[in-house]
Amino acid sequence: MIAGFKQRILEGKPLCIRGAGSKDFYGNPPQGEILDTRTHSGIVAYEPTELYVTAKCGTPIAEIEAALAAQGQFLAFEPPRFSPDSTVGGAVAAGLSGPRRVSAGALRDFVLGVKLLDGAARELTFGGQVMKNVAGYDVSRVIAGSLGTLGLITEVSLKVLPQPVADATLRFEMAQAVALDKLNRWAGRPLPIVASAWQNDVLTIRLAGARAAVEAAKLKVGVGETADGTCWDVLRNQTADFFKTETLWRLSVPSTAPELKLPGEQLIEWGGALRWLKSDAPAEMIRAAAAAVGGSATLYRASAELKAQVDAFAPLPAPLMALHQNLKAAFDPQGIFNPGRLYKEF
Amino acid sequence: MTTRSHSHERDQDFSDVDRAALLQALAAVLPAAALLADHEDLKPYECDGLSAYRRVPLAVALPEDEAQVVGVLKACHRLGVPVVARGAGTGLSGGALPNEHGVVLSLAKMKRILKLDPYSRTAVVQPGVRNLAISEAAAPHGLYYAPDPSSQLACTIGGNIAENSGGVHCLKYGLTVHNVLRVRGVTMAGEIVEFGSAALDSPGYDLLALLIGSEGLLAVVTEVTVKLVPKPEVARVIMASFDAVTKAGAAVADIIAAGIIPAGLEMMDKAATRAVEPFVKAGYDLNAEAILLAESDGTPEEVEEEIAAMRAVLEKSGASEIRVSTDDAERLRFWAGRKAAFPAVGSISPDYYCMDGTIPRKRLAEMLMAIAEMEKKYGLRCVNVFHAGDGNLHPLILYDANVPGQLERTEAFGAEILALTVQLGGTITGEHGVGFEKIGSMCVQFASDELAAFHRVKAAFDPQGLLNPDKAIPTLHRCAEFGRMHVHQGQLSHPELERF
């Protein structure tokens, strides 16, 4: 498989690295010939007591999660599964994390190591399988979320964790501003709130951890309606009606940012730090609102027409863009991998 | 001065730096009190926490604000002078060892906490703020900064960023990289760049993750936004004795297998407990071959549940004695020995050399037995303390620098331990960094393609290679001299040959 990948890279033509294609919508429109990673698939190593799993890039996330679940473990960053065959390589390249990100950490926090092919088809190994490793630059974490622009990820090692013993979901009727305030105040106390979602004046929170901790926390957060936890998978995989829209913005902001007065409907996750916005408002207005509170706005889902006009990601200051271009050139000087997918400059 | 281009083939030669021109340029951008150039003033900066290596720099700059940092970097960039950034100088790998033809850029005067916001659970601090000072400032709000390296009383957040520091609680609470939201820094060319933001995700490459742990080779940190987390209501620690290190190692895996992630999970061998007990009187079981310290924190209910679960696991794993701290004073006493291990060892031996590899947890016992063999081979004693929960080893090799040949034997002993960490599937450094000290061992862990990639990353930030030169990433030339000992797929080529 690797030999085939290398051959494609050495042909020197622009490539669109693709697993199941479930995230074709994400970033700027894909360009180049498709290189399908699904032929390179399978769990290479999984050691529950060492808390890591190593898998080839084309391995479905679902396959990894099934193997972990059999040992009572899970991927705590909850990568969204947009299709049953979404791959681990795609998940790492996109760097997206699910509802639990606010408490467990992001995908990049769980990347222990990667193997990749660079623009000259060299096989490079960064990081490893151990939890603490500061030898050399932490290239693996930079690969996370780089949208395949720095190299073809062939293998990844991820940290895994035991599933919490107890889990509870509570629901409260609450206006947005009140919910944001509650979430920030709760986050300053030692409560096992692992995820949250606010939509249409309803705040839903997830408690998880030791049985005693969850029971004690239920009393501390006040009387809410107990709900079943299936809503979290719906949120994670973005299968709810809210996400079935033509234009969807993803605003990453400080959790304490006040209610954003923007036209359109909002869904708020991560204790206030992630605000989804269904809106046809002009991109400049949305980007300015996010920047004004110290965050940024990504054009997450949009029509081909709109994506052709508006960059998917917020523009970078010149010195930072220069570092991006230099880093891209360090790994892929010919610009073979996913050209323009992250920024049109490279 | 001619412009040099950074090459990863050979170490750079800075011997043509013009001292007078440099001092004149620095005097133009710094107040008089912020520039040291007399030999006696420079002497205290000749080494960091790894005092075996010393070099006196040409000058020390002590900027008071970011504009002065920019001024120093621009001047040195223009003149082609190497710059080594320094915090408190507590590093253990010689990362802040000066270049004798360069400038030490001390961030010690930039030590203000600019903002501490309990509502957003963040603090904005200057690089010279001490790690513990952040937690002390946050304490009245029931918050703290989680990473707690043993040197937290003295070490600075800027240095923590450079090394991606951990501590005894990082199994549960993460390393520096997991607890920092944003870093503002200055590149060698004097450009100010913001990495990350006050939000959880930022657009573009995660350069914040690249900067953290980059050992001062990519940019100089001038401001940091850290996350603060709620202080757990209670914490208790179990102290378990084992009559064999293999049993203690297996118990660590058993705890993880039981679905428990303790707040801290540390191991000390008999040599370590015997060294520290007279020093701290922690009440350690001195007949045990190894002891484990396992901490649980959280709500009182949660801790009670977790302590009971861990006790059951440890009993089943064959612990010969189990004690649980009954109050905070006792808990701190159990920990005191672990935290004081380094100074305690300093009291029983004229010198010691601290190693820092990480290995898969399941190979702890194997490593310990190999170290015991090496003690005989090199004729030196070794005391072992571990962050067992994450497989991070700190063997302390005891030696006397005044005995001719002992330092060389110690270095060879250390290098053999590091080569073994790589063979066992681990890494040569878990949290102390490569610095100057372990640069040869990098040739064992990485092949030349990866090393060349690291040099290209460096050049993306600092094409002339002026920031902290000849540290962290060895030149290919140096590796060739070192003997090309890259361990391929866990096997040294020609394993039958003696290497050190």
Beta strand % of chain A = 25-35%
Biggest β-sheet strands, sense, barrel of chain B: 7 strands, antiparallel
The number of distinct structural domains of chain B comes to 4
- In DSSP terms (H or I, runs of 4 or more residues), the helix count of chain A works out at 12
**CATH fold-type name of the largest domain in chain B:** Alpha-Beta Plaits
N- to C-terminal distance of chain A: 27 Å
Strand order of the largest sheet of chain B: 15-12-14-13-17-18-16
Total number of helical segments of chain B? 18
Tell me the structural class of chain B: alpha+beta
Global structural class of chain A? alpha+beta
Largest chain interface and its two residue counts?
Answer: A-B, 84 and 94 residues
CATH class annotation of the largest domain in chain A: Alpha Beta
The CATH architecture of the largest domain in chain B can be named as 2-Layer Sandwich
**Alpha-carbon distance between the two ends of chain B:** 40 Å
Brief description of this entry?
The complex is a heterodimer of chains A (346) and B (500). Chain A has three domains: 2-162, Uridine Diphospho-n-acetylenolpyruvylglucosamine Reductase, domain 3; 166-236, Alpha-Beta Plaits; 241-309, Alpha-Beta Plaits, CATH 3.30.70. Chain A is 28% helix and 26% strand.
